[in-house]
Amino acid sequence: MAASELYTKRARVWIPDAKEVWKSAELNKDYKNGDTSLQLMLEDGTNIEHKLDPKTKNLPHLRNPDILVGENDLTALSYLHEPAVLHNLKVRFMDSKLIYTYCGIVLVAINPYETLPIYGADIINAYSGQNMGDMDPHIFAVAEEAYKQMARDERNQSIIVSGESGAGKTVSAKYAMRYFATVSGSASEANVEEKVLASNPIMEAIGNAKTTRNDNSSRFGKYIEIGFDNRFRIIGANMRTYLLEKSRVVFQADEERNYHIFYQLCASSHLPEFKTLKLSSANDFLYTRQGRSPVIEGVDDTKELCNTRDAFTLLGINESYQMGLFQVLAAILHLGNVEIKDRDSDSSVIPANNRHLTAFCELVGVSYQDMSQWLCHRKLKTATETYIKTLPRLQATNARDALSKHIYAKLFNWIVEHVNKALITSIKKHSFIGVLDIYGFETFEINSFEQFCINYANEKLQQQFNMHVFKLEQEEYMREEIPWTLIDFYDNQPCINLIEAKMGILDLLDEECKMPKGSDDSWAQKLYNTHLKTCTLFEKPRMSNRAFIIQHFADKVEYQCEGFLEKNKDTVNEEQINVLKASKKFDLLVELFQDEEKATSPTGQPPGTGGRTRLSVKPDKSRDKSSKEHKKTVGCQFRNSLQMLMETLNATTPHYVRCIKPNDFKTAFSFDPKRAVQQLRACGVLETIRISAAGFPSRWTYQEFFSRYRVLMKQKDVLPDKKLTCRNVLEKLVQDQDKYQFGKTKIFFRAGQVAYLEKLRADKLRAACIRIQKTIRCWLVRKKYLRMRSSAITIQRFTRGYQARCLAKFMRRTQAATIIQKYQRMYVERKRYRQKQAAALVMQTILRAYMARQKYQALLREHKAVIIQKRVRGWLARCWYKRCLVSIVYLQCCIRRMRARRELKKLKIEARSVEHFKKLNKGMENKIMQLQRKIDEQTKDNRAINERLAGLESSYTAESERLRSDLSRLRGVEEEAKNKTNQVASLLEELERLRKELSTTQKEKKTIEDWAQTYRNEMEKMVSELKEENGSLKQDKDNLNRMIQEQSQQMTEKMARSIAQETQQLETDLNEERSRYQNLLTEHLRLEEKYDDLKEVMASSNISKPGHRRTDSTHSSNESEYTYNSEYAELEEGSRAAEDVTRGMDTSLTLKLQKRLTELEQEKQSLRNELENKEDQFQRARARDDAEFKKARGAELEYESLKRQELESENKKLKHNLAEMRQSLLGNAAAGAGAPGSPAYKVLLEQLNASCEELDVRKEEVLILRSQLVSQKEAMHHKETMTEPSVYVGDVSKLKDADELKQACIGLKDTNRSPRFMRKPLEVSDLLSRLRSATPDFHKLNEDGELWLVNQGLKETIRLLEHQLQTQRRSYDNEVEALRGELQNVKEENNRQQQLLAQNLQLPPEARIEASLQHEITRLTNENLELMADDPTASREARVIILRRMVDLMEQLEKQDRTIRKLKKQLKVYSKRIGEMGAGQTEGQTSPGQMVDEPIHPVNIPRREKDFQGMLEYKKEDELKLVKNLILELKPRGVAVNLIPGLPAYILFMCLRHADYVNDDQKVRTLLTSSINSIKKILKKRGDDFETVSFWLANTCRFLHCLKQYSGDEAFMKHNTPKQNEHTLSNFDLAEYRQVISDLAIQIYQQLIKCMENILQPMIVSGMLEHETIQGVSGVKPTGLRKRTSSIADEGTYTLDSILRQLSAFHSTMCQHGTDPELIKQVVKQQFYIIGAVTLNNLLLRKDMCSWSKGMQIRYNVSQLEEWLRDKGLMTCGAKETLEPLIQAAQLLQVKKKTDEDAEAICSMCQALTTAQIVKVLNLYTPVNEFEERVSVAFIRTIQTRLRDRCESPQLLMDTKMIYPVTFPFSPSSLALETIQIPSSLNLGFLTRV
Questions:
Q1: Residue 382's pLDDT band (boundaries 50, 70, 90)?
Q2: DSSP 1610
Q3: Is 1844 helix (H, G, I), strand (E, B) or coil?
Q4: 1125: which residues sit within 8 A by CB, 6+ positions away?
Q5: Second label for 1640, Cα 20 to 30 Å away, from 678, 1080, 1505, 1624?
Q6: Residue 1849 in contact with residue 1066, Cβ under 8 Å?
Q7: 68 has a pLDDT exceeding 90
Q8: What phi and psi values does residue 1508 have, to the nearest 5 degrees?
């Protein structure tokens, strides 16, 4: 359709606005062709008329539909233009708080000026491995895309970060490098990724500064190449820098700072190592105080310097070099404070003994005289002579500043060079990713050489960007095979030619620099003459001859020519450089200027403003060809380096990040549209939009188009071929064929067509919604009507029947009431009539008398009142007359006086005016005469008036006499009135008295009547109160009874709740401790694996020396008893390889270190055994009594906590020892680390000494225990018999197991290692007493509480007895533990002696004792010599040890003699038995030596029975074959299908039973050790195979359960059959090995979880989020260039069914392998947690997934998972609860989000989500259809306010690596061992059934 047809009523458009750039408006009426204006209504309701341009007739831009606003990719917008881009960015930034947005291939990053939690390790892991369009825009997504393309395409990549100062370029580049360092790792142990990141603080310190726009602005450009090997791991990096702003060293504008490093040094000047720098506050130095802003808010410069120094150290720059750098920097500050004064007009001088110059010379090691000389002079050379010229003060100051800038530039280059050396690697670089952090386009009020170079670089980058975008568009069209039309785009090659071509600006500048008298003005004239008329991009300002204007791609920029030549030449006084190079005390300074022989200007670094010294240096004839390089200008160098950069970028695949500064005030989340538009135009974002909009910006796959616009098709239009269907439908919907094109896989649309299709779709959906609503509402209303009608009929029927019954009843009652009323009314009326008649007669009598009296009194009062009135009225009339007369007279006098005065005044005025008139006007006599006549007339009138006045006075006098006579008469009347008044008052008093008497009488009568009425009322009230009181008492009684019952019930419930809460808390703490232990075990295993890998690397990279290796004979044979025996054999081999590496390191030292490690591992094993014992006690206590179980659980938890702390400390020691050993063996191998005095030698020697000291302590304890053993046993027995009470034996026996646990807690207290365990025993005791005692019923006790007191006393007595018993048991356990340790030592000695005996038996009898003594003496002598050679002070202690060993040796010899005699006797007995059985002929010839080498167990011969005893016998040499066939080469699939579950575990246990049966401890140890190591080996080899891991997890657990079931422990024998109890182990306690096997099972479980996670991870997001399980609900929104993964199920796409099938496969595999059901539940719970966490994390990072329809999809998917749990019977495993956060997030997407009630509902519903997650979901919520509404910002703030008080983690994403702690509940087997048959397929024919 035509574009003009879209401008209909209600259509929204964008119109230009001066303030907001673009403003939204709505059409009030349709637009018709030919209209000159549009009638619009703004968003505020204002109606305006928008005039169209009469020439272009361009209509305003159309606004996109609301569902497209806030898109992740700007190219997804239907209308691509500037206002749409600006509005989309603003909505995302302001409303959704999203700072990243895609614009095609460009990532637009807006600086939020606020720290956001979106850069953590969890976010990095979430973006790792994801497609770029699948996740929300992020710098990590760009970095991942670059990393992925590098690995996939084998092509180098570049990330180009640009933008204005303060836009966030440096931070973006930093996060990109952090991402590479995190996801790739390093190829060596040198931590290259840490070094790459460590270069950031260094470069920020020396290259960043505070500006008015940015607190941490990069004042240079840098390109960092991060190198990768062929496995794409970081191996090194290289940095190139561009255009350092040197002028900042000597000058800063207001509110700006110098480089950070200067302020860091000044802030740290108080440190002792910086005292020699003679620094102080930054305000004391000229170079740091000019900006008057030395402090940045929120930045600690002292701390920043520490970070900088740490980074220097990490990069290999040692302390001496660091102090040298700081000296140079301090010298620059002091040089800036050197004051130069005028000597005369042409010369200057530095005052003698200048403090700062002295400090400068001391710091750099130069002569004060030479430096002061050449700061004020310069040397000029001619062809024949050289002379020295003085400098004026200004030139000398400029020369000083130029020297400072030059030194700093050299220092900067030196640091960059050494950083690159630290990051370089010897490994071949396979590929690299470059990160370009470069300045954006700049324009200021005054633009100079720096801005010119910056804008020149941006022109080159913009050209490369345009060509790349154009190339991508062309490739897309060519790939889709659609007609390609050349798109016109802005080419800035003419501007680049203007700058860099021949006779361009840079060429003319270099030419002018070569001229002897070249100047800025002459260069400007050359520019005008050359380019003003030939180039349209070059202009001349109207009012200036020293400036020029260039039309750049972003804007016009006016450059001031002043300073261009100086900055381009970058001159510096050569003699000053020579003085610095002559420094003999400061090698670093000489190193900085060692290249000055080649060039006197720093490479590629232009100067800043300032520095006006001109030094024309002419090369001598003796100079070589390198002098040409001396003349290379800064512009030429920058052009060459820029050309190299462009070649590098063109050879890579670029990725673009455009940083936008939202405002100039650094306000968080504030958006200024004007500033944003300026930067969007300058950075090329709008050019990308323009190129996209010129072609076909909207692109849909056929499947997406079909899914989205299926509603516009009819059923007959849908064909099997969706591509043909889309083609047919689109041709019907859009008539203009030019508006779209059909590609191979996509449909291409012109701009605006998607909006048109969306409009058609919305109209169709709206019509369908209306029809559905109409039908539904009709059905609902009719259903409601029928329901109401039926209800009304029913109600009417019942109501009418009820009314009829009520009417009949009413009629009967009415008739009866009428009769009663008739007689009652008659009686009442008669009685009332008689009362009224009597009362009326009395009242008539009284009333008539009263009325007569009143009438008489009224007549009397009226008569007297008439008399009084007459007198008073007369008197009042006279008084009034007198007052009136006086007033009238007075008034007349006043009026007459006033008139007289007026007349007099008038006459005086007339008199004066006449005289004046006479003087002025002569000849006016006639007028005067007239006036005289008038005066005469007036005089006559006055006389007449006076006569009349005299007549009035006479009449007034007569009237006055008459009034006086009347007054005298009235006075007499007044006296008479007074007398009458007195009489009236007396009469009134009498009347008042009578009235009072009447009222008193009436009151008395009324009082009597009231009293009678009150009495009756009180009596009635009293009766009712008594009745009420009686009722209330009964009610109170009932209430009290009920309250008593309720209180009792509440106390019971409260006690139960408290017990439940404490139990839950104990369970939580136990799970936390178990999780900590398992994490610690995982870390320990990881360290072991890392150590094994290190040994393998050492073994493969070093050649062993020939010759005999001397072994340490003191190496205890107890190592073989430890589970990891083979691992420590490998450790011995690794130490031998280390011997070769260290070239001479003594093997015995390494072996002793191994021995120490072995002892530490044994201590850890003992802790594990104790933990296993305590867990067994806990299980027994739980089986006996639930209350004791809860009590014991808390104690066990604390005991486990301490053990885990000790285990953790031991692990830390192991880690520390391993780290030190590795560093010593690897780091110093080349430097002869094995020589005495070397660090490796010292480390090993220190560890050896510590090990020897600890061994001495242990042996002394054993000797003490030997001497006190018998006495301790007797004392123990005596205490136990004396202190045991007989009264409370029953109670104490009940608390046996619990007391053992409490004793363990007290033992923890005695260790005094953790103060937090000090009060635990008492708390456990209180808990025990509470759990044992029933809920007290205080109402059943007697009143004085005697029973309760007695009970408390008994409890205190029991506690005392328990404490005594605990003390006894603790001491007993300590002694037993000591005895066990001694017994273990004796066993070790016995084993050792048996080995020695086996060797000596082969010798003649005379030589055996001598050989044994010789062997021990040799060993002790060697150790003594070694100790004396290593440490003479330790030799004395070694002698004491040797003496003790000699005593032990003599005792051992005696024991050996006795053992030999005993063995000889046994040999004779056995020989006789064999002879009796007929085998004497063959066995009698066996020698004793052969008996030891190949032992025969004759004890089995007489005990052999006919029935199978459930044991398997094998020979010693068949052990390897057994392990190989049963473990290493066993195929889990065949075993799981054909054989019984857990068969390998049963076979191993039956072999173990036989070794226990014959009492062969060596065989038991080797079998267990080889089995465990073989399982580890097969897991390491096939750890990625789920079936293998599951198989061995099931068998390991079964083997562990067998060890428990047949251990002989009563707690594990409850479910055994009598036959199984006979098969228990009889000779060995394998509790220690149970803990080792349990740890192995934990390791296998964690491997199983990782294997499952690797399988499920690719399925989760696709199946749970992207796939549409309910087809047609959500549809597909328009997407941009960054295509996301399609939600339509294609081939190879995972769906929810894929996840369910995989879960079923996991479950069936574990069931086939015989995995315990409880363990399967834990595995399923972990699976569901991974599914929920990964799904929720992706939901939180994908805006396109946060919609109402997607919430419905998620809830449906979760319901399917719950259905799967229900089918498998796993609803109680806790897996459903792990999905609760995901369920609540889906509900949050669907609930209403408008009012405060909705906010309250959301807060109460989303308890499993954190505040950050809730706010994130609300911010990301995006409508898919026009019927949905966005979430307002006010609503989100309301949510944040309501959730402010939540105490939770601020982490946004869930931890997908978290693994729940696993437990292995005891599961006995009902399978009888004697019934197990071994199949021949296992190749175990060498096993013999016993």
A1: confident
A2: G
A3: coil
A4: 1119, 1565, 1569
A5: 1624
A6: no
A7: no
A8: -75, 130
Residue 1440 has pLDDT above 80, yes or no: no
> How far is it, in rounded angstroms, from Cα 701 to Cα 85?
24
Confidence (pLDDT) at 1742: 85
DSSP characters over 653-673: EEEEEEEE---SS--TT---H
The mean pLDDT of the chain is 77
Treating both helix axes as pointing N-terminal to C-terminal, what angle do 1561-1581 and 1125-1142 enclose, rounded to 10 degrees? 70
Per DSSP, 65 falls in state: P
Q: Hey, which residues does 551 pair with through a beta bridge? A: 556
Give, in order, the Cα–Cα distances in Å from 1072 to each of 1318, 1733, 1859.
20, 20, 12
Give the SS3 label for residue 1874.
Answer: helix
Q: Which amino acid is at 534?
A: T
Check residue 186 and give its pLDDT.
Answer: 56
- The pLDDT-based confidence of 1637 (bands split at 50, 70, 90) is very high
pTM of the prediction?
Answer: 0.60
Task: Report residue 1529 as tokens.
Answer: 């080469």
Q: Tell me the pairing of strands 547-551 and 556-560.
A: antiparallel
118 closest CA partner among 87, 150, 96, 103: 96
Grouping H, G, I as helix, E, B as strand and the rest as coil, residue 234 is strand
Contact (Cβ atoms closer than 8 angstroms) between residue 151 and residue 128: no
CA dihedral sign, ordered 1091, 1093, 1099, 1102: negative
What are residue 48's DSSP bridge partners?
40
Residue type, 596: E
H or E, element range at 239:
strand 234-242
**Residue 702, CA distances (Å) to 1677, 1683, 1684 in order:** 14, 14, 15
- Which of these, 1458, 1442, 1448, lies nearest to 1397 by C-alpha position? 1458
The pair of three-digit structure tokens given for residue 1763, joined into one six-digit string: 């259905």
Distance CA 783, CA 775 (A): 12
Q: What is the CA radius of gyration of the chain?
A: 55
Separation of alpha carbons 231 and 151, rounded Å: 9
Nearest Cα neighbor of 63 from 103, 127, 139, 6 is 6
How high is the pLDDT of residue 1630? Answer: 86
CA within 13 Å, CB half, 406 = 24
Long-range CB contacts (< 8 A, 24+ apart) of 734-737? Answer: 734/1, 735/1, 736/1, 736/2
The confidence score (pLDDT) of residue 1254 equals 56
Could you tell me the two tokens for 718? 């849908």
Q: Which of 1, 1678, 1676 lies closest to 697, judged by CA?
A: 1678
What tokens does 1057 get? 């709740």
Does residue 122 contact residue 128 with C-beta atoms inside 8 Å?
no
Which tens digit of pLDDT belongs to each residue from 1285-1299? Answer: 333 333 333 344 444
Q: What is the DSSP letter of 1225?
A: I
Residue 321 has pLDDT above 50, yes or no: yes
Q: Is 256 helix (H, G, I), strand (E, B) or coil?
A: coil
* 199/237 Cα distance (integer angstroms): 10
Residue 463 burial (CB count, 10 A): 19
Give 1031-1070 pLDDT, tens digit per residue: 888 888 888 888 888 887 888 888 888 888 887 788 777 7
Helix (H, G, I), strand (E, B) or coil at 441: coil
Backbone angles phi, psi at 293, to 5 degrees: -145, 70
The whole-number pLDDT of residue 1881 equals 82
Strand order in the sheet with 556-560: 538-539, 547-551, 556-560
* pLDDT tens column, 751-771: 777 777 877 887 888 888 889
Strands, DSSP E only, in 1591-1705?
A: none
Cβ(402)–Cβ(607) under 8 Å?
Answer: yes
From first CA to last CA, the distance across the chain in angstroms is: 93
Judged by DSSP in three states, 1660 sits in helix
- Tell me which residue of 1732, 1762, 1752, 1760 sits closest to 1853, measured CA to CA: 1732
- Check if the beta carbon of residue 549 is closer than 8 Å to that of residue 541: yes
Between CA 1202 and CA 1073 the distance in angstroms is 10
